[in-house]
Amino acid sequence: MNISLAGIPVILAYIIRLLVNKDGSIRPLLKVPVFILGLAWLAFLPNTCYLLTEWRHFLTIIDYGHFAARVHNNPADVVLLMEITLFYIIFSGIGVLAFALSIRPIARIAKLKGMNLWVWGSPFFLLMSIGVYLGLVLRFNSWDLIQRPEQVWLSVLELGFRPTVSPLIIAFAAILWLVYLAIDIWVDGFMLRFRSRSLSSPQSCDR
Hints:
- The protein contains 11 helices and no strands.
- It has helices at 2-19, 31-44, 46-50, 55-64, 67-70, 75-112, 117-136, 144-147, 149-157, 166-199, 202-206.
């Protein structure tokens, strides 16, 4: 279920990119649909980076399963621990990739409009971090923005009166920013290598 929710903003982002012209402009008839899709994209985007927090379940399994003591006595438990660890690495990896892929098309549009990431990045990733907090701690979901908007906004405003929570949210926002930059560079490198291999393949040379 969580992975399915993480895929929604990826799809929405690329639909928005298709509806926007190459120069970043939007045809008048498409402005309202793009705006609605943008709001939906923003609402579902925290579901991608939320997958990073699933490591708390991994730590719970290790604690309650007493794996630290068991691995010394039973080799089978070592294999089980490796399988569980691999599962959470893949699970969080999907979330990180979905997070970057969801932002990349929108970031390209913003760049076409002359908006630098270093300008809009701070409030944007802070908003994502708040979204994860609302889902992880207060158990809100994306639909609550429609079903319970008053409670959601009041919870966001209350953060100003919680000095112990606010620094953690800011720190997580910085982590999300760094994660995005790293994956964005990696995806660019992967695409560049893929294109270079395609151009250097025997079939392309024959053409």
